Amino acid sequence: MVEDPDQGVIIPLSGTCACGRCCAEIGAEVLPERRQVVEVVIQRAVTEYRFVGGTCTCGRVQRSAFPEGVTATVQYGPGVSALAVYLTQSQLLPYQGTADLFQELAGIALSPGTFQRAVTVAATHLEAPAVAAIRGALLTTPVAHADETSRARRTE
User: Fold this and answer.
1) Distance of CA 153 to the CA centre of its chain
2) Are 49 and 77 within 8 A, CB to CB?
C-alpha cells in the first residue's frame, strides 16, 4: 500500500437498514479499513510551446526562443524514443508491433522507420570508452552469464 494514493474514494452508505431506515440518513464516519487498486495509466501528453514577442522602446523587436531541442513543428519527446528503444532492443518487439502498441495504448501513430531511427540515434550516443570497458571486462571474466539460463559458461 502507498500512503499517498493518486485518488481517494469514500464509499457512502447505501440501501436500507433492517429497521427500515435509509442508510444514507445514518450519521456515518470513515473507518480505518482501506483497500487500494494499483493501475497502469499510459497516455499521450502533448506540450505546446508558443513564442512571445514585442518591441522595445528603443525600437528593437524581441522574440522569445523555444527550449533547446524543440526544433520541429511537431516532434516526439525523449520518453517516446526511450520507450521505443527499450521495447525493440530489450523486449525484442518488432518495429511494426511497437508501432501498433504505441497506437493502441497512447494514440500515437508512428512508422516502424521512426523506431529504427530512434535505435540508430541511441546507438550513436553510447560512449565508446564505456562500451570498450564492458567488452574488456567480458573478455577477461572466467564465467560470463550471457544467456537467460542459470548455467555458467566459460569464456575461452
Assistant:
1) 35
2) no
Burial class (CB in 10 A: 0-12, 13-18, 19+), 112: middle
**pLDDT in tens for each of the 156 residues of the chain?**
999 999 999 999 999 999 999 999 998 899 999 999 999 888 999 999 999 999 999 999 999 999 999 999 999 999 999 999 999 999 999 999 999 999 999 999 999 999 999 999 998 888 777 888 888 888 888 877 766 665 555 555
CA distances from 107 to 104, 122, 139 (A): 6, 24, 44
- Output the nine-digit C-alpha cell for 57: 522602446
Q: Given phi > 0 = left and psi -120 to 50 = alpha, else beta, which region is 109? A: beta
Buried b / exposed e along 68-105 (16+ C-beta atoms within 10 A): eeeeeeeeeeeebbebbbebbeeeebebeebbebbeee
Is the whole-model pTM more than 0.90?
Answer: no
Grid coordinates representing 14? 447505501
